[in-house]
Design goal:
heterodimer; A: alpha/beta; 2 domains; six-stranded antiparallel β-sheet; 6 helices; B: 2 domains; seven-stranded mixed β-sheet; three-stranded antiparallel β-sheet; 12 helices; binds flavin-adenine dinucleotide; binds iron/sulfur cluster; binds FE2/S2 (inorganic) cluster
């Protein structure tokens, strides 16, 4: 087995989420199965690779979705692909969420910006077995209403039982009726005791930093704060060294890492 | 362990015989140092070969045979295969064989995804280690649990008798190599006198090293590095660093690489190039953020990797005291002094 070798994945659909974020529905051959929390290396042939966490349900066998923000070289070229084009994928890599250990607990999913993308696959995996958990709290913050991802899906998500949804934007507009403020405002008046739950956070570095501080203030235990760490990654499987964070390799020991494992580091969020 | 010996004068014949097992590299004098050279059956002065064999580690680290600075590792959409042929490498020193086994093997052969090319080379290449009768000022294996000779890790080990070279067979591959030599009759049993002489040479080398490096390194390096977060410490400790990255390029334990793709036909070829954490772009993530943007952070990162993360993950320090980074440094930085200043 050559772990550097990707498999082809044809583009089935491209969904425009926001001006800078799109969802790509791919059909890898053979199918690529993953568990929530794991990530994949996706290449635009001839351009390069970048790591992305699938945003679709791990129970979906045939296709796999990625929700991606345009930020640089590879992602810009991705935005030029059309249905019918072929991309390449390899993986999955990293440690999946231990969903079994979340049973009978409150699960707080806290996303910022495009950070909701990786959390969506966790959310969908939880929904698969929704009654096993006390309650699922999906909290999401974006900079402004037009930068909200999955606006098309929230309506249906709000109808789900055992699920609570909160959203905020940093700057509102005339149509915005939900909360206004940085994402941590959503953590005020939590409807459960932090000791009875866990929090999973993904978003830009500053959002992760302030969210962690707030969650700690609220009384979440260090080992109950799950952080999706973004580091430069090249191989994805513990060889190339790039993703090292202290003594951990984000690719193989993460990419989701609990606060107790990194709190001794000077500033894990830079 | 089986051993045998042959006269100093038969070294060239020994190399020639080894080359039947694969392309063979041996240490060759190059100024005040040695360098790995391809054996090409030329007429070489046996005394020069012997002199080179006695010198400390060659300029190039042993890893260069196993992790080439640039190699293709995949292609798309067609499948990529590579034909890796056996090689024989003579001249690895104790410090170098341990970087391969303790460091590179831990990275490239462990975990869910082995590197298939590294693995095949490890299986097919023969390694012949050699004692160091003459340690030099840059050597410090003795303060990192090493010795200027080694009894394990390679396939054969060469040590020095007064008029002979003593070969210890260290593995099955080593058995295979030595079977050929008995065919041509250059070998004989090792005598007690030869072993006594060897012990004397080894003890001398250890004494010399003990003089070069009197003080041990701190035993709590991981904790010291972890607590040294002040950029000023690193700026000062490595004040002469001109960021040429020579120390990382020459280091046998540095293992980082990056993958890049170039268009080929309707798909691409994927190349793996060794990468170095002193590169400003090493830690850059999407959109331009970079946790290692500041030079002192990168300086610290090199030490954090070798002396904190590696021992915590694999129970060994990722430095064996080969001293290459000391010889290579244009700013005359001595890593031993940096470690003692921590
Ligand atoms: C586990 C994980 C999951 C992720 N999931 C998602 C997701 O679901 N959705 C999403 O939108 N994003 C996700 N990301 C972030 C995503 O990987 C980055 O946005 C992406 O890598 C950007 O690639 P780019 O080439 O477009 O960006 P660029 O900014 O062009 O490049 C970033 C990469 O290229 C290298 N590079 C760029 N320029 C240079 C240069 N001048 N010199 C040297 N090197 C350079 C950098 O080293 C870096 O590796 C995830 C990241 C990780 C680690
Ligand atoms: S850090 Fe220097 S002395 Fe240590 S293994 Fe690397 S090159 Fe050799
Ligand atoms: S560091 Fe030790 S083993 Fe390495 S070359 Fe010097 S004396 Fe030999
Ligand atoms: S991405 Fe290569 S080691 Fe983690």
């Amino acid at each position: 087995m050559n772990p550097y070798e990707p498999r082809p994945a044809s583009v089935k659909e491209v969904i425009v989420e926001t001006p800078t974020i799109r969802t790509f529905v791919l059909e890898p051959k053979p199918p690529l199965s993953f568990r929530a929390g794991q990530f994949v290396e996706l290449s635009v042939p001839g351009v390069g690779e970048a790591p992305f966490t699938p945003s679709s349900s791990p129970y979906e066998q045939k296709t796999i979705e990625f929700t991606i923000m345009k930020v640089g070289r590879v992602t810009s070229k991705l935005f030029a692909v059309r249905p019918g084009d072929t991309l390449a994928v390899r993986g999955p890599y990293g440690v999946p969420y231990a969903l079994g250990s979340y049973e009978d607990r409150h699960i707080l999913i806290l996303g910022g910006g495009v950070g909701l993308a990786p959390l969506r696959s966790l959310f969908l995996a939880l929904l698969h077995n929704v009654n096993a958990y006390k309650h699922i709290h999906l909290y999401y913050g974006a900079r402004m209403p037009k930068e909200i991802v999955y606006d098309r899906l929230f309506k249906q998500w709000r109808t789900l039982k055992n699920v609570e949804i909160r959203r905020s934007v940093d700057v509102g507009d005339k149509t915005w009726k939900e909360q206004v403020g940085v994402v941590t405002v959503l953590l005020d008046k939590l409807p459960f005791k932090p000791k009875e739950g866990l929090a999973v956070v993904c978003g830009p570095p500053l959002m992760m930093k302030f969210s962690t501080q707030r969650l700690l203030e609220l009384g979440f235990a260090d080992e109950d704060i799950y952080l999706s760490m973004e580091k430069n990654m090249s191989c994805g499987f513990g060889k190339c060294g790039h993703c090292r964070l202290g003594e951990l390799f984000c690719c193989k020991d993460g990419p989701v890492i609990t606060w107790d494992k990194i709190k001794h580091l000077e500033d894990p969020f830079v | 362990m089986r051993s045998f010996s042959f006269p100093h004068a038969a070294l060239a014949t020994f190399y020639k015989n080894l080359s039947e097992f694969g392309v063979t590299y041996y240490p060759r004098l190059s100024g005040q140092q040695t360098s790995y050279e391809l054996w090409q059956d030329e007429e070489l002065d046996n005394d020069d070969l012997l002199k080179a064999l006695k010198m400390v580690r060659p300029v190039e680290p042993l890893k260069e045979f196993f992790l080439t600075s640039r190699e293709q590792v995949a292609s798309f959409p067609q499948l990529f295969t590579k034909d890796i042929k056996p090689r024989v490498i003579v001249g690895a020193k104790g410090c170098d064989i341990h970087t391969l086994i303790d460091v590179q093997d831990n990275i490239y052969l462990k975990g869910d995804n082995e590197d298939p090319f590294y693995k095949e080379r490890r299986e097919k290449y023969y390694i012949i280690t050699v004692d160091c009768p003459e340690p030099v000022d840059t050597c410090f294996c003795n303060i990192l649990d090493g010795t200027p000779y080694t009894a394990w890790g390679g396939d054969l080990n060469i040590s020095f008798g007064e008029k002979s070279l003593i070969i210890d067979i260290l593995s099955e591959k080593g058995e295979k190599l030595s079977s050929k030599l008995s065919d041509i009759g250059i070998i004989k049993e090792v005598t007690d006198d030869e072993l006594k002489y060897r012990d004397k040479i080894r003890a001398n080398a250890e004494r010399k090293l003990a003089k070069i490096n009197r003080d041990m390194l701190p035993t709590d390096l991981p904790e010291r590095i972890e607590s040294k977060v002040d950029p000023d410490f690193w700026r000062k400790a490595l004040a002469n660093c001109v960021d040429c990255q020579a120390c990382e390029r020459i280091c046998p334990t540095c293992y980082c690489f990056l993958l890049y793709d170039i268009p080929a036909g309707k798909g691409f070829e994927r190349t793996k190039v060794l990468d170095f954490c002193y590169h400003a772009a090493y830690g850059r993530v999407g959109g331009g953020a970079n946790p290692l943007a500041n030079f002192p952070h990168r300086l610290r990162n090199r030490f954090e990797c070798k002396f904190m993360a590696f021992p915590r993950n694999f129970k060994v320090i990722a430095c064996t005291g080969c001293g290459r980074c000391i010889s290579a440094c244009s700013g005359k930085i001595d890593i031993r002094e940096v470690l003692r200043a921590l």
